[in-house]
Amino acid sequence: MDRAPESHAGWTFLTNHSRVLAAIADDRTTRVRDIAARCRLTERAVQKIIADLEGGGYLTHVREGRSNVYSVATDKRLRHPADAPATVAELLSILIHHESTYASASSAPTASSVEGHEAP
């Protein structure tokens, strides 16, 4: 986790916002440092994305001691009109299913980690 993010040129299928949201949905108490390592972003980029997600109403947090505990608005609709009427929960279920199918067993998230979501 101490290594610098790998650079990537060109476009990707998933946005950094969706990656960060999925990382938070997987672990509501995760640290910015850990999200950055998982998503291969800088900590500053993750902080900006979290601010965007909170500003858009997709994410909230409460402070517990020295840590943040995040809550994902899983019933909120995705932003782009072409994605309507899909919800955050539906997006996360796809990402979680993908990770649980292809990731190693020790790092795979579970569907139960997404509030209000049942396994596909």
UniProtKB/TrEMBL annotation:
Q: Which domain of life is it from?
A: Bacteria
Q: Which residues form the HTH marR-type domain?
A: 16-65
Query: What Pfam family does this protein match (any one)?
Result: MarR_2
What is the name attached to this protein's record?
Winged helix-turn-helix domain-containing protein
